[in-house]
Design goal:
- The protein is built from 11 helices and 6 strands.
- It is of the alpha/beta class.
- The chain has a single domain, classed as Rossmann fold (3-Layer(aba) Sandwich).
- A 6-stranded mixed sheet has the order 1-6-5-4-2-3, sandwiched between helices.
- α9 links the parallel β4 and β5.
- The longest helix has 18 residues.
- The protein is globular, with a radius of gyration of 17 Å.
- The two termini are 27 Å apart.
- The mean pLDDT is 97.
């Protein structure tokens, strides 16, 4: 089978199985949820992905306006369709491998993910560029965003919060859910860089 035929068949199977489960998705959120399921083969995303009010429309408006994407892993950066994003005037950035981020994190005894979010916020404030944060690995990235939000020094335009794991993962997601920041968040332990990229791509493909 051709790659495009495999994907088409996969989405047909997803549609059939959702119907068998009696799950009817919100038509606006549907493409995002289906692509998360397609990426993971996990139908639980139909129940655990949480969308703030008009989240998909707000995210797509940001992208159409040339918003950039900041990720917490190079894996997510690699998985995002940069050509489609560039067509809208945006680009993707991950600060995790930056030497100054690593040095500061070591000096302060904190994670590179938290420092990378602070560096991203500083750059965004300087440039004035709208930005979507796509976090698929590090709960400390979400915690850093919430701390800056609480201090009133930075408010993200949009957060995709899908870190995966066991330590502070559930709690970090709830920190974003408990704000006015537009968001798409997966409740619970599941997520990953692949899911973060899949959600961004679903938003891009729907433009």
């Amino acid at each position: 089978m051709k790659p495009e035929d495999i994907e088409k068949k996969s989405f047909a199977i997803i549609a059939d199985e959702l119907a068998e489960m009696g799950i009817v998705l919100d038509p606006v959120n549907d493409p995002v949820i289906r692509r998360a399921i397609h990426t993971t083969a996990d139908f639980e995303y139909a129940k655990t992905l949480v969308f703030s009010e008009n989240a998909v429309e707000k995210a797509r408006d940001l992208i159409r306006g040339g918003a950039d994407i900041v990720t917490d892993t190079n894996m997510a950066l690699t998985g995002i369709n940069k050509k489609r994003l560039a067509a809208c005037g945006g680009s993707v950035r991950c600060y995790m491998a930056d030497a100054d981020v690593a040095a500061e994190a070591k000096k302060l005894g904190v994670t590179r993910a938290s420092v990378s979010m602070e560096h991203a916020a500083s750059d965004i404030d300087a440039s004035g560029k709208k930005t979507i944060f796509a976090v698929g690995n590090a709960p400390t990235a979400l915690i850093a965003l919430r701390e800056m939000y609480d201090r009133g020094i930075f408010v993200p335009d949009f957060v995709i919060g899908v870190p995966v794991g066991f330590v502070n993962v559930v709690e970090s997601k709830e920190l974003i859910l408990d704000t006015e920041i537009p968001h798409i968040v997966n409740r619970g332990r599941k997520g990953g860089s692949n899911v973060a990229a899949a959600i961004v791509n679903a938003l891009l493909y729907g433009l």
